[in-house]
Design brief:
This protein is an alpha/beta fold. It contains 15 helices and 15 strands. It has an 8-stranded mixed beta sheet, sandwiched between helices. Strands 10-11-9-8-12-13-14 form a 7-stranded parallel beta sheet, with helices on both faces. α11 packs across α14. It is globular, with a radius of gyration of 22 Å.
Amino acid sequence: MNIGCLLDCASRNAGGLFESVRRIAQSFPQTQGTTMVFSLEDEHAKEDAGHWQPLKLHLFERKWFPQWGYAPQLSEALLDANIEMLMTHGLWKYSSLASLRWHRRTRRPYIIHAHGMLDPWAVQNSKWRKRVAAMLYESVHLRGAACLRALCESEARAMRAYGLRNPICVIPNGIDLPDLGSIPNSEFQFPNVDGRKILLYLGRLHPKKNLVALLHAWAAVQRDNKGAKEWVLAIAGWDQNGYEAELHQQCSDLGLSFSLPSPPRPGRGTEGEVSSSDHSSFAIRHSVAFLGPLFGEAKAAAYRNATAFVLPSLSEGLPMVVLEAWAFAKPVLMTPECNLPEGFQANAALRIGTDAPSIATGLRELMAMSDAQRIDMGAQGRALVSKKFLWPRIGEEMRSVCEWVMNGGTAPASVRCD
């Protein structure tokens, strides 16, 4: 079976989608045929292309409307590729229109992987732009899909609430388990935190991630919890639309001393002021560290050095970063909006709300736990991903859905037709 994988961004700029889309494509078991990947160029696309091996990555130049992802050569390349089925990842961009045009010309089926983009918060974010896209092409594109992939039951319900009646397969993202006994080959050095415990956030710096509420909660706990002085909040991620500057301002407004990554920033490095990128500045007890974007071994080093992980998001499909934290045997604080209720059930995560007081309550609970309790919670997370979220299992489930779409017969267990 010749499968096409279509996405707007195939580099690290895609965030968690870079890992999840790439690994489900690589994990798809093919005895015959091939899987081809079609995406758009950006500043990191060629550098990151090797991560897609052994799959062939085809990149196309963005023109005229770069944010929308218009690439006129993409549609013709899809038609020339002799694809029997198309996997379209994401919504609201030109790739959706290219997928729809391919289907109309070939009459062959496609499966849409929405990745949380039909969840209520996501639909309301930039809602007028999305309403225009829905009117022009996205509604027709969604209704014409042979199947929709939801990452969890909550996302499947959101698809039905949006008015879609297509078959839905519920197949989560997966993870590759790291060897916790190996010594990473990385030049990245986690900051000297003066013996303190590290609470790590890793991901996009975007309002959806709710980091302003986390900083308010962190400030409250720093004021009223003596044990909080033995922790540092490490925020690793890449800025989106200037949100990082807002976070820096929030730290200043809340009286939280913080350190910034390289390139060096001005500042004397005294308590309450921004330091340079010299990680030795942590000796003066900064309570928040901005580490900048981390990838590959540097990201693995951050997970290894962390004591716990936090994701206070307002909306997620199924966050790769939580699976990664569990794979590194770290306890997690997360909101129900992260759509991983299995974590609460398995005692692998603490439940927090999206408001600052609720987050602060979760922080206090985490800090009150013994080292042994936190280690046990992390071990439960690693056991959970080992049982349910490994990529070979996910790839096999996706293969069964594709064969059903192509050949008919009894629907796989993951498919909801009602």
